[in-house]
Design goal:
The structure holds two protein chains of two kinds.
Chain A lengths: L36 H15 L6 E5 L7 H4 L3 E4 L5 H11 L4 E7 H7 L1 H10 L4 E6 L34 H8 L3 E6 L3 H13 L4 E6 L3 H5 L7 H9 L10 E2 L17 E7 L5 H8 L10 H11 L1
Parallel strand pairs in A: 1-2, 1-3, 3-4, 4-6, 5-6, 7-8
Antiparallel strand pairs in A: 5-8
Helix pairs in contact in A: 1-7, 4-5, 5-6, 10-11
Chain B lengths: L2 H11 L2 E6 L6 H10 L6 E4 L3 H13 L3 E6 L1 H17 L3 E9 L5 E5 L4 H6 L8 E3 L4 H18 L2 E7 H5 L50 E3 L13 H16 L2 H4 L2 E4 L6 E5 L1 H16 L4 E6 L1 E3 L3 H8 L4 E6 L5 H9 L5 E5 L8 H12 L1
Classes of the chains: A alpha/beta, B alpha/beta.
């Protein structure tokens, strides 16, 4: 068995610039060729590099599914929890250690079907979490079933005649629940995605970034789309998303951001506001006896909250 | 104070500084007390959106180093099962207080039962072992809340306090000792630097040292079957190495974990095995039987899980019969039967919940088997 921390493989120095951020003993990863998850993981790595968050201050929590595996590949504190519960688990970490930067990387099914309740309440509380949702419109790990984001008309193994439920508009959901930062990008916008995740990571409060990501096996195949790249092209072509129809609209109304076949997918930053976080209000409203010991981070929180 | 409040005070005395809960009768008073008291001791309280979230949040808080607890009753206990399993798998210490009420389903929110005893042992899917205590007074709610934290920390498990509505809502005097007089156990921490730390490599006691989030150890935990490094390992070898250990780390230490109390057991012919509120009710049954010339004794379970199998086996060769009264349709009696293995009769005294069975019910059975 190899050691758990391998920054460099012997004889194969500098395999990839991202290696030092990864648990290389876990590679190769389990994701399919053409999957967008590698791009999202890379964007997170680039974002923490940009935001200069040290390793010992970073925690990543994930749920179940293909995206859930992202946590285990990152060489930092990582918790791969139960299906849908990543936000609740992360809530416990954040409250216990407010000084840590706690991110949740998970999929659309995990965060918005089974985990929807935790998402809306964490956003309502403005819990200081950074939630990155990799939206591939289906449950990939279990073989391509329909879910809460499957567009009307799209085929999956459980919507063989085409999806017939209204899908969630995730940016609107996040915004109405109280998220202070809401953005949507696709895996084609890798640099904007990186910058947006870096912004989210340093934003105080509940920050949400949706990433439209290809799933050539689970979603591409039943819809006869082709490769992962073909899938992204399809979003531009067949869904009439050729630039300039690929709309990047800073500050546009997330209500208009629903994803419908034949309509443009709106990407960009929808929300960037400030609102007291759960812990801000906790320190402000709840009594704290002078004699109880507070650590430096807590002292700062209390001072900030009272100011 | 009542039992629920005593449990909250016991937890705080044990060093619990994180509580995530959701209101549910008859456990709400634990939550209310924690909401009031935790800020006073620089603790953190959060009311979650449901019991699933409460359970997940206490695991997260404990993974980040805080002693953490939640409390609930039947329906909420069912919802917690998923993440109790995660706690067993990730080996995260925490405490769950279940103040049992009548079920199934919504059942009898305000009335007593002891119907979650088997769920406490087998409720989450897969194989694992936990520890479950059965307090029978507000004082014991206080004491066992502390004990539950010590056990959770020592063995890295979710530990359950299986109270019942009567104990939770019973008001009695509770003696709270000086903080210095309370024995506290903390979790085992790694003694090696991060590059040498193997997160799930157990010591000889089968318990691996635990690194916390934010300590620079790059902690890796997963609910998947994992190898010693915490890497997902969906294969036979990893399952063989991991899952038997999760149960064995409790079984191996069963003799130091197990607690029970005996009354009139020295010369007993008929042993009444009881726990929780039932153990108080049937003291009278035992006394009545003694008065009528039957040598009855009371064997009170303080730990339901692990079950004191060896002790009951021993008793089976010394006594003439066992009587097991419970406020359910016969749960812990199955364990007594298993340990007794047919050597002497075991009689179940069942009561469906919603009230206390009369002492006469158990007395009658004791007199019958003594014939």
């Amino acid at each position: 068995m190899s050691a758990p921390f391998v920054d460099k493989l012997e004889g194969l120095e500098d395999l990839h610039p991202a290696d030092k951020w990864l648990r290389t003993d876990m590679l190769p990863h389990i994701w399919c060729p053409g999957c967008g998850l590698g791009i999202v993981l890379n964007a997170y790595i680039k974002a923490v590099e940009k935001a200069q968050i040290p390793r010992e201050k970073r925690v990543v929590v994930s749920g179940i599914g293909c995206s859930g595996r992202a946590a285990g590949y990152l060489n930092q504190d990582s918790y791969h929890t139960t299906h849908g519960r990543s936000i609740a688990f992360a809530t416990g970490i954040k409250i216990a250690r407010p000084d840590l930067n706690v991110a949740v990387i998970s999929g659309d099914g995990d965060l918005f079907a089974i985990g929807g309740n935790h998402f809306i309440h964490a956003a309502r509380r403005n819990m200081d979490l950074k939630v990155i949702c990799v939206n591939n419109f289906n449950y990939g790990m279990t073989g391509g079933q329909g879910g809460p984001t499957t567009p009307i008309g799209a085929k999956t193994t459980t919507t063989p005649y085409g999806g017939f439920e209204h899908p969630f508009n995730l940016p609107w959901l996040a915004a109405t629940c109280g998220a202070v930062y809401v953005a949507r990008w696709t895996t084609l916008d890798s640099r904007r995605l990186r910058d947006s995740i870096a912004e989210a990571l340093t934003k105080k409060g509940f920050a949400f970034v949706e990433v439209i990501s290809p799933c050539p096996i689970g979603f591409g195949r039943p819809n006869k789309i082709g490769s992962g790249l073909d899938e992204m092209k399809m979003y531009m072509d067949k869904w009439d998303l050729k630039p300039p129809n690929w709309i990047i609209q800073e500050g546009s109304n997330p209500r208009e951001a629903d994803i419908t076949l034949g309509k443009p997918i709106v990407v960009g930053k929808f929300v960037d506001i400030d609102r007291p976080t759960f812990l801000d209000l906790y320190w402000k409203i709840l009594p704290h006896k002078e004699e109880t010991p507070l650590n430096d981070v807590e002292k700062k929180q209390v001072a900030g909250a009272k100011a | 104070m009542n039992g629920d409040v005593a449990a909250a005070e016991g937890a705080i005395a044990a060093g619990c500084r994180f509580f995530a809960g959701y209101p549910i009768t008859p456990a709400t008073e634990v939550t209310e007390r924690m909401a009031e008291r935790l800020p006073e001791v620089n603790g953190r309280y959060i009311q979650m959106e449901d019991e699933i979230g409460s359970m997940a949040a206490i695991l997260g808080a404990s993974a980040a180093g805080m002693k953490a607890m939640t409390s609930t009753s039947g329906p909420g206990f069912s919802l917690m099962m998923e993440n109790i399993g995660l706690g067993a798998m990730m080996e995260i210490p925490c405490v769950v207080i279940d103040v049992q009420r009548g079920g199934p389903s919504t059942g009898l929110p305000t009335l007593v039962a002891q119907q979650d005893m088997m769920q406490a042992r087998w409720g989450s899917h897969g194989d694992y072992a936990l520890v479950a205590y059965c307090p029978n007074s507000p004082q014991e709610m206080f004491n066992l809340a502390i004990q539950a934290f010590n056990t959770a920390e020592k063995y890295r498990i979710p530990t359950l306090v299986m109270a019942d509505e009567s104990i939770g809502h019973m008001t009695e005097k509770v003696m709270i000792p000086e903080q210095g007089a309370i024995h506290l156990v903390g979790r085992k921490k790694p003694t090696v630097p991060p590059e040498q730390y193997v997160p799930f490599r157990p010591d000889a006691d089968l318990i691996p040292p635990m690194a916390l989030a934010g300590e620079g150890y790059s902690v890796r935990m997963t609910g998947l079957t994992h190898d010693e490094y915490g890497r997902p390992a969906i294969n036979l070898d990893a399952q063989t190495q991991l899952v038997p250990r999760l149960a064995e780390k409790i079984h191996k230490h069963a003799s130091e974990i197990i607690k029970y109390e005996e009354l009139h057991m020295d010369d007993a012919d008929v042993v009444v095995v009881a726990y929780g509120i039932t153990s108080r009710c049937v003291r009278r049954s035992v006394e009545l039987a003694r008065k009528d010339g039957v040598k009855a004794g009371l064997f009170r379970l303080i730990t339901a899980w692990p079950f004191p199998e060896k002790k009951v086996k021993e008793l089976a060769s010394q006594v003439k019969a066992f009587v097991v009264p419970e406020i359910n349709l016969g749960q812990m009696v199955l364990e007594v039967e298993r340990a007794v293995a047919g050597r002497v009769p075991v009689r179940s005294v069942t009561y469906h919940g919603g009230g206390m069975p009369s002492p006469e019910l158990t007395y009658d059975t004791v007199m019958e088997v003594a014939k």
